[in-house]
Amino acid sequence: MKSLPMVVSVLGRKYGVQVVIGGSGAYTDGNTIHLPALPLDCDETLIGLARGYIDHESAHIRETRFDWLKLANLTPLEMHVWNTFEDWRVEHRLARLFPGCRQNFNWLIQHLFGNDSEQTADPAMAILNWLLLSVRAWDVPSLNSQLDDVGKLVEQHYPGLTGRLNLVLKKVHACCDSTQDCILYAREVVSILKEKLDSQPPKNEDFKDGIVSKNSSPNGGPEGSSRNLKKLLQAASDDLPNGLGEALAESLIKGQPQDLSESLCVARLGNKTTKPIPPEDAEATRRASTALRTQLQGVLQSSVLSRSNVSRHGRLDSRQLHRLTVADSRVFRHKTRKVGVNTAVHILLDCSGSMRRRIKLTTQVCHAVATALDGIDGINVAVTAFPAGTPTDGGTSNAQGPTVCPILRHGERMHTDFAVSAAGCTPLGEALWWVLQQMHSLSEPRKIVLILTDGDPDLSNVALNAIEDARHIGVEIYGLGIMSEAITKLIPNHSRTIHDLSELAPAMFDMLRDALIK
Fold first, then answer.
1. Taking the CB of residue 512, how many other CB atoms lie within 10 A of it?
2. Distance of CA 260 to the CA centre of its chain
3. Distance (Å, rounded) from C-alpha 193 to C-alpha 185?
4. Is the peptide bond before 387 cis (omega within 30 degrees of 0)?
5. Measured between alpha carbons, how far is 11 from 59 in angstroms, rounded to an integer?
6. Count of domains for the chain
7. What is the b/e burial string over 271-288, where b = at least 16 CB atoms within 10 angstroms of the residue's CB?
8. Which domain holds residue 512?
9. Could you read off the pLDDT of 346-383 as tens digits, one per residue?
10. Which residues, in sequence order, are bridge partners of residue 314?
11. What is the 3-state secondary structure (H, E, C) of 150-195?
């Protein structure tokens, strides 16, 4: 589960969607997939459900034409049948591009629909179950025995119906290439059900004192079957079974932990106002930055020198010709350039309410460090502040979670808009997981996160889990305590504390020197 933030960041980029982890619901708004906060310690089933939900909803975001669906103005039953067909179609389209999805989908189908005990006794509802199992058995043949049982129930009450519906299913399997196709086939299915209702025997019910006589059959006989079918055709959305997406969402919501300190929640993008460093502070910031860059460049200079090695190709070196007497062909000189630093550094800036009296120094330190590192060839710098304001990536009003605001993204040009206000809580762990998502896809082999904070996160356990997770995937975590030594509790061996801007250069040099030349 701890690797899930990195998994969803990879999947999100591959699928071209956004994935958010946190909050209380599981849903998609057509652009972003929202997962609820999930327990850090859980079984493989919940992990499989989470990954399957991402695959399933990604397929809809990529492939479903929701504008066509809106124009179709389907009835609730038509919408349900359409969803059965469309789920299968979009999953197949995604699995063609990403074959690994097929295994996820097959596991989901077996997990959600392969339970014989969940068969409905309502013969009309059994029609929907039969359609679902028919479609899903195309990929998971183990459902065929269950399909046969449901089919017998349907045929017992509606003779000849499965044969007519099978003609539509054959067209779905062979020719269903778009959302519009699924709409047309769903309407055809409902049209067949209406025709079946019209052909059912007329009602012959004898009511006396509100009780159905023994000559009528409320559920089991032809009259009951007709009544159930009519009820199905007139059903509202809430009266129909959940689709795959809804069933997955319910399972994920049930799996939410009660204790937030044991949950996995990733911060989301939010808004925060940034301003240029004030002119009266800019000069002091520049001096601190220059001092730090000068010291770091001195120890890094030797790492990019050119060297000349003996090789089997290159420029002939007459001093190596003696090697030929022993059949050694290394008589050439080949110049090589040692790889430089090639490191990504992400600075995580704490601007929570507890940093209020430290925020001026913190923003100066942040800008000085970022400028110094940005001036060194081979270092890719980014800066992110937390917390931010209202999420910018969608979500419902009751699902507002921790947020972050990028001040400088990896690859962007350095600027001076680093001044921010201090307010809000300290979701360090959630913010760190967001940063890890951004760094996971970077090409630099070395990745470092530098946290500027007072060291007091809202949930220490969540922060420690995120730090441990970062180290497991090869990201190094360092901390700089601003007028507070609390950071040493979170990162005891890779942190320093400063109380003034003049202390920045020696503290940072002492901490980063070995990291950058490693």
1. 26
2. 19
3. 13
4. yes
5. 11
6. 3
7. ebebeebeeebeeebeeb
8. 269-300+340-517
9. 999 999 999 999 899 999 999 999 999 998 888 899 99
10. none
11. HHHHHHHHCCCHHHHHHHHHHHHHHHCCCHHHHHHHHHHHHHHHHH
